[in-house]
Specification:
- This protein has about 110 residues and is mainly β.
- The chain is built from 1 helix and 9 strands, in the order E-H-E-E-E-E-E-E-E-E.
- The protein is globular, with a radius of gyration of 13 Å.
- The chain starts with 12 loop residues before the first strand and ends with a strand.
């Protein structure tokens, strides 16, 4: 059992990529990532025009630069760093938050707009 976990709220609805784009494109989001075995907090921007997710993340108390490639596979958003295989997730929206959800319905990350 992962100590860092989040449940998908009952009211969250699955978004299409077009809905997700209009919701998050170019906006700053505060991100909490749950499935890396340690707490990771980030301030990121998803850019469809540039095809990137960029910003800063705090991992094990250290700040690191984030610049990953943004792609899509069907209704999943995918990201991958240099030399990594893409990690893809379905997007669910609830209020001012979006949830990146794995195929097995576990929440990978929660992002809050603003």
């Amino acid at each position: 059992m992962n100590a860092y976990a989040e449940d998908l709220p009952a009211g969250a609805r699955k978004a299409t990529i077009e809905e997700f784009k209009s919701f998050a494109d170019g906006k700053h989001v505060k991100v909490e990532i749950f499935d890396l075995g340690k707490p990771v907090i980030a301030d990121l921007v998803w850019s469809w025009k540039k095809g990137t997710i960029t910003g800063k993340a705090k991992v094990d108390g250290k700040m690191v630069d984030v610049k990953t490639k943004l792609t899509f596979k069907g209704d999943q958003a995918c990201s991958n760093g240099k030399g990594e295989k893409p990690s893809c997730h379905f997007i669910y929206i609830d209020g001012n938050k979006f949830y990146e959800v794995s195929d097995d319905m576990t929440v990978h990350a929660v992002s809050t707009l603003g």
